[in-house]
Amino acid sequence: MNIMNQLYFYVIVSALLGFSLNMLTIVSFWKIRELRTPGNFLVFNLALSDCGICINAFIAAFSSCGKRGLFHCCPLSLLRYWPYGSDGCQIHGFQGFLTALTSISSAAAVAWDRYHHYCTRSKLQWSSVISMGIFVWLFAAFWSAMPLLGWGEYDYEPLRTCCTLDYTKGDRNYISYLIPLALFNFVIPVFIILSIMQIVLFFLFFQFNTSLPVKSLVICWGPYSLLCFYAAVENVTFISPKILMIPAVIAKTSPAVNAFIYALGNENYRGGIWQFLTGQKIEKAEVDNKTK
Questions:
Q1: Mean pLDDT throughout 258-271?
Q2: Which of 4, 51, 68, 192 could cross-link to 73 by cystine, CB 3.0-4.6 Å?
Q3: Strand partners for 122
Q4: Taking a C-beta distance cutoff of 8 angstroms, is the pair 263, 47 a contact?
């Protein structure tokens, strides 16, 4: 199995794991009454966006196998082409950016809820979390729609198996879009999560690992962000397409990582999932959003 077959096999496995865990998070929220709290709605919203990332990864993996079929050629012989045309490329790029940006902002929203829960001892109300959920989707939709309108551009990845923001040109249009995009959709969310977790750590000392949300965000999305910024100052077309694919592959692991941190890492949410799977009641009716 060559390196590209390994990468796409890794994408498929990560997407399957992430989709399964996040669908379990979503269904448990709807089925278990004890989990339906304002704070958990934000975790539900995060899981919803992460499922979208997994669907985007599935499409990319399927297209890499072409008409011969996923299970016939993968992971043995990838055809490496995009079979859905230019319009399909634009839709795929938009959907990928929409769900990815929503996922990042949703993680910041969960951190904001934890600040209220642990530090102010005042819980967010349903009206607040629903407004936050709608805002993060609309905010992500705005930035995702801009390349469709000419500010930035969606195009094929170097291996032409999926579509994303075209970072190969590095022109003024790309740079003017990239800088505010990264500021509002990566730098500020990271700053919010880092600041809030430091405050939570001050209040709770060593009760749980407050650095996990920041580390996961930086590790999963940092390499892709660095690639986009590097493309603004250097010509990336000389870099091997196989190397250029690595940051995108790492980013596609974020749904599974988020599920482990925000759902399975939450003691009472984990209990709600267990109740959904086994029918055994969870002891606490109120979720404290504790991240182990």
A1: 90
A2: 68
A3: none
A4: yes
